[in-house]
Amino acid sequence: MIVHSQRKKLMANSINLFRVMVIGLVLCISLSVLHGQAPTTLIVRAKALDGKFIGSSIGGALIVVKDAYSGEMLAKGFTEGSTGNTGLIMITPRARGQSISDDKTARFVTKLSLSKPRFIQVDVISPYAKRQATVLSSTQLWMLPGKHIDGDGLIIEVPGFIIDVLHPTTHRYIDLVDIKGKQTEIRANVVMMCGCVVTPDGLWDGNKMEVEATVYLNGEQHSIVRLKNVEMNIFQGFYNFSQVGNYEVIVSAFDPVSKNTGLDKVLFVVE
């Protein structure tokens, strides 16, 4: 009987403790809501100009959220997920208020604890994994306690191209005897900031893009060579590096429709 009584007492104490914990949790939540301290969701997406979203396939975009006045860091991380639905983003006409993302589309999610409205700055550094092409896109906005910025979230546009010069290579020493009288290939890889492919007559049409190699010899502009989109992402041209000296080749891309720009460069020596 004594053991049974002790068990009943222990059970009653456990139930009372559970009730106290539940009541305390409810009070905490209620006080947080009353004082505007409920976690407030912020979703940030980075979208390439004239392209799709910047996600895991290209290394993501670095998102930095901070107080716009004090500079205090509030959140930091990378966008993760897919580049999104091509048809929905690039082809289907969009009605006002229509979403262009789904549950797999790349995003960065954070929850800010706000006691009152806060003016924040959101920086997008992208594409983070391709530093020669990285640009900073930024905006500012008011975050209000309990007013979530979810769904498509805050979409920040990132202009540019990712360009890698594949040939000639940087800091190469070339013997003039080996190339004299010959055309040397200039070859570059050009993709959208989202990693979306550029192809002749494709959705991102390389035939309509102006990709050029500007050749400098000993610091002075020597020639401009137009590069042609010969296969997926690859642009090619030829030039006769017929003089001894220090060369700099800048490959640039310009889309006359979207006004996107980008470049990469190599330096080498002909001796």
Describe, in plain words, how this protein is organized in 3D:
This protein has 271 residues and is an alpha+beta fold. The protein is built from 3 helices and 15 strands. The chain folds into 2 domains: 120 residues, Immunoglobulins (Immunoglobulin-like), CATH 2.60.40.10; 110 residues, Immunoglobulin-like, CATH 2.60.40.2550. The strands form 3 sheets. It has an 8-stranded mixed sheet with strand order 8-10-13-12-11-14-15-9. The protein has a 4-stranded antiparallel sheet with strand order 3-2-5-6, with no helix packed on it. A hairpin with an 8-residue loop joins strand 5 and strand 6. The N and C termini lie far apart (103 Å).
Keywords:
single chain; 271 residues; alpha+beta; Immunoglobulin-like; 2 domains; eight-stranded mixed beta sheet; four-stranded antiparallel beta sheet; 3 helices; 15 strands; 44% strand
Chain-wise SSE layout:
Elements: H1 2-34, E1 39-48, E2 62-67, E3 73-78, H2 86-91, E4 108-113, E5 118-126, E6 135-143, E7 149-158, E8 161-167, E9 173-174, H3 176-179, E10 184-192, E11 210-217, E12 220-231, E13 234-239, E14 245-254, E15 261-270
Low-confidence stretches: 25-34
How many helical elements? Answer: 3
Q: Say which CATH homologous superfamily of the largest domain is assigned.
A: Immunoglobulins
The count of β-strands is 15
Whole-angstrom Rg: 28 Å
Could you estimate the helical fraction of the residues in percent?
10-25%
Shape: elongated
Total of domains: 2
Biggest sheet details: 8 strands, mixed
- The order of strands across the largest sheet is 8-10-13-12-11-14-15-9
Strand content: 35-45%
Report, as a whole number of angstroms, the end-to-end distance. Answer: 103 Å
Query: At the third CATH level, what is the topology name of the largest domain?
Result: Immunoglobulin-like
Briefly, what CATH class of the largest domain?
Mainly Beta
- Which architecture of the largest domain does the CATH hierarchy give at level 2? Sandwich
User: Taking all residues together, what is the mean pLDDT?
Assistant: 91
Q: SSE string, helix = H, strand = E? A: HEEEHEEEEEEHEEEEEE
Structural classification: alpha+beta
